[in-house]
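## Example record

The block below lists the input lines for one assembly entry, exactly as stored, with component labels intact.
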Amino acid sequence: MALLEATNVTKQFGGLTAVNDFTFTVEKGAIDSIIGPNGAGKTTFFNCITGFYQFEEGAIVFDGHSVNGRSTDQITRMGISRTYQNIRLFSQMTTIENILVGMEPQLHTSWIGALFRLPPTVKEETKALNEARRLLDFVGLTGKGDDLSRNLSYGDQRRLEIARALAAKPKLLLLDEPTAGMNPRESAETTEFIRRLRDELGITILLIEHDMRVVMGISENITVLDYGAKIAEGGPSDIQSNPRVIEAYLGRGAAASATIEIES
Amino acid sequence: MSSQLDLRNAARVGLLAGVVTLGISAVGMLESFDTRDLIVGLLTLGQLVLFSAPFFAGYRVTLGEGKSDVGPAAVGGVVAGALTAVPPIALILLTLAAPNIRNSLVNVSPELISLLSLGASEVVGSLLLLVVMAVLGVAGAMFHILPDAIRKPLVSGLGWMLGFAILSEVSLNILRPVLGRGLMRALFGTKGITPLLAAIIFVAAIGLTIWWSKNGKQRYESRKAAMSEAQIKQSRRVSIGVGIVSLLILPIILGTYLTEVVDNVGLFILMGMGLNIVVGFAGLLDLGYVAFFAIGAYVMGILTSQGALGIGHMSFWLALPIAVGTAVLAGVTLGIPVLRMRGDYLAIVTLGFGEIIRVLATSDLLKPYIGGAQGILQIGKPTIFGFEMVKPIHFYYLILAGVGLAVFVASRLRDARLGRQWMALREDEDVAEAMGIHLVSTKLLAFGIGAAFSGLAGAIFSARLSSIFPHSFNLLISINVLSLIIVGGIGSLPGVVVGALVLVGLPELLREFAEYRMLLYGALLIAMMIARPEGLWPSPVTKREFHAAEEEEAMGGAQ
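Predicted structure tokens for the full assembly:
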């Protein structure tokens, strides 16, 4: 069953068509990737799914409900969480406070309750704090909960961003270049970690990634975007040998010779 | 090579200090400070400021290089100190060359020149000033390279002595009933303290500091370390109790005049607590905050006034919730159109809103209802069980209750879900929304709750003064409240109190400063931003991962 279904999505900025008639599905429980050269419209498509952008044409349906015209907070409450290409943590808040903010969709008590420390509020806050500590352990940040998030190392900031996204208990997690700026060892760890998210928590994952080792290693289905349009779709081996993909990445002339290199 | 560079730095620092001295002389500040005695017969505030310049210039020369040797430090100090004297000397000689200089520089009076030339004639005085300032420059440089064991007691001795002298009026007011007439005369002059008292304070502060660093600190810390969990809790409870009791008896000690000053500070703390929620917690820069203060004051005025404009002739207590409610309503009403605005745009719109309210208050349109420039008179005083609150001390308790409520609300909300939502909003509005935070309600709550405290302050303000006029609600109030938050430490609750004491309390006590208040405000803000941008008392990072239980306990105890 398809968890996310995008049909003929088009997003324009003035005269520029960033996403062009894009049709796309993600199956429940999958780990899928969107790849493409810089400026191909990958992040723009993420922004369309999560409500940061309103798109002109087409429809995106998540879990049976349309996301068209909904605001970002509503979409998050429907069960889509994301991370950002350039890390966007709440830098002056502590690690654990970042996770607690991520937990918003699960929290329901009002400020009146907080003012008088009513039992339901206290109970909910205690539960949230315990859950946040558990998530801290899960992503391997135990002991760093009270550090300001801007003081964390780069890799830890990436982990925290994922933990914050997980705190919303999403059905679909969108990861925008989760291994950007990491060395090969860190990338491998992150790849393994992403697989755990799916296997242990049952979260469907869609990622944008430039590191082909990561993409080919974990993706079940890969979609290639170029100039906003889909140019290829399939499993890792199909994509690797697809001449249009090679052309998009390397240019027409280099395509023929490069095919041999990649295959070897 | 390096010593040459040092000299250039010394020259730069010295000339800078000299130009500042020249500036404050030319605007008349130095002369006006000279009328204030610090230590009777020995030192005036003007002299202190004048002599601080070369001292700090010399101090600054050796700063940042660790502890340098005596030789280079002395040379640097001489250069910096002597150059500090150059601009003022130029001014002295200018008065010789052009006797009618006063036509263009009105503040360059004979008194100022006599102060600058240390009482001697112009030429002799200039030389004297040069020598004295060079010596002070060396003193400043030497002071920096003194070992800590000598420097720290000296700093505390001088600091306490000068601090006490500057605030002598406060201690005079407090001690007058306690001390006898003869003792008073031995210790205090009409302005400032006598050399005897200065010496006592100086010696006592030095003695205490030495004792503390030798024995006291260790003893205190070892005793603290030996305390059990329950003892720590108990000592915390005791200190909170002592704090509350001293707040309750404070106005009795302070006397009428100082209580009035404290009342004023209290109203600003109340407003600061509210604006701190809007600006400090939620990061919404509001420059029209005075509008809610005005609304609270006018609603209270109209509803309780016994004069021609009064409608309802309500009691203070009935009018209070209506005044606060109206302010909240105005806060939310302002909030709705600016929901999508950020940063500078928000600041400009709120600035405009504040001005609209002020203009409306002075307008002819509303004159039949709120009195225009003539304001509202005969505003009712609060009564409790038939007892009418009229004196500053009565309002002190009213304001204290208001501040207590504001601290309670602000601290509870800060540590709750709403506080986290506000902080997330402040850090990154887009991401905060993408986390599932409802922007509209979160922002409107910040505006509404912030406006409530401002409205409360306005209502008390209008009952306290019995009459209100539109000119009391100008932009300067908004700027003052914002400045006190920034100076105290943005987002910090104790910072609001400290900021209000420094920016509202001190100028009230030092009336010589009044004329130069804005100049000193500006200088202080610039100095703060360079030296301590986080504020005088920044808010600590809340520990949640490990110390959650203890934190809850502390919060529970604080109420």
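Residues 1-73+205-264 of chain A form a domain with the Rossmann fold fold (CATH 3.40.50.300). The CA atoms of residues 247 and 253 of chain A lie 8 Å apart.
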